[in-house]
Write a structure and sequence with these properties.
There is one protein chain. Helices cover 31% and strands 26% of the residues. By secondary structure, the chain is of the alpha/beta class. The radius of gyration is 18 Å and the shape is globular. The structure holds adenosine-5'-triphosphate and magnesium ion (MG). It comes from Cytobacillus purgationiresistens. One of its GO terms (molecular function) is ATP binding. It is found in: Cell membrane.
């Protein structure tokens, strides 16, 4: 299959259970248009991360279907699917390796692409100021970096292959207000031109999204713009 281009996402009557006993998604349906930024909110355990788990094919829906650009996700290979979806997990992960590896991973030799991604998120400056620049080797956990800088690295990593879909599980941890601004700026840049799903905790993220999906107990209970809810 050709990799998807537009990034429209449709969940139609999706049900899913981790244990074959209790459904944690119950006939969940929603549509996301190409280029939209959608915030998913809801209580703990309501099924937000499960939606992401299905979309990235970590698990398979029991009933219903998930399509991207009109094609059932089961028809995309897992590798192809994940290559075209940028993913930022809740906990910014840093690897033992240099900055080229931390951003590019297995495409660590695409230096131009990596530097472009770092520039977009505003990480190029602090990386260039490090002793060996992009060749500086970070320790596992990245103790050389502030929590805000680590977050920017994970943003650069998510967009390095220019994916049409971006998924962000927003960190709940408090970040100092100075980095908070850098992160918001970076966030606005990386979502631009992509279909984005953000599991949102910050009011600002929610306000800036095109649509909000409210999950409760495995179901979409409300959907609309911030002003409408
Ligand atoms: P949070 O805000 O706490 O991250 P969430 O909305 O992301 O919550 P999910 O992680 O989707 O919630 O969990 C939905 C339900 O599925 C919960 O009851 C949870 O305990 C259960 N669950 C999540 N992951 C697994 C798993 N890997 N195995 C079994 N049950 C799971
Ligand atoms: Mg979750």
């Amino acid at each position: 299959h050709k990799p998807f281009q537009m990034g429209s996402i449709i969940f139609k009557n999706v049900s899913f259970s981790y244990d074959d006993k209790q459904d944690v998604l119950k006939q969940t349906s929603f549509d996301i248009q190409p280029g939209e930024t959608v915030a998913i909110v809801g209580k703990t355990g309501s099924g937000k991360s499960t939606i992401i788990n299905l979309l990235l094919k970590f698990y398979k829906a029991n009933r219903g279907n998930v399509t991207i650009d009109g094609v059932d996700i089961n028809e995309y290979s897992t590798q192809e699917l994940r290559k075209n979806i940028g993913y930022v997990s809740q906990d910014p992960h840093i690897f033992a390796g240099d900055l080229f590896f931390n951003i590019g991973l297995y495409n660590q030799n695409n230096h131009d692409q990596i530097i472009t991604a770092a520039k977009i998120v505003g990480a190029d400056k602090f990386i260039s100021e490090m002793p060996l620049g992009y060749h500086t080797v970070l320790s596992e956990r990245g103790s050389e970096l502030s929590s805000g800088q680590k977050q920017l690295i994970t943003f650069a990593r998510a967009i390095v292959n220019n994916p049409s879909i971006l998924i962000l599980d927003e960190a709940t941890a408090k970040i100092d207000s100075e980095s908070e601004e850098d992160i918001s700026t970076a966030l606005n840049k990386i979502v631009s031109g992509r279909t984005t799903i953000i599991i949102a905790h910050r009011l600002n993220t929610i306000k800036n999204s095109d649509k909000i999906i409210v999950m409760d107990n495995g179901q979409v209970v409300e959907e609309g713009r911030h002003e409408e809810l």
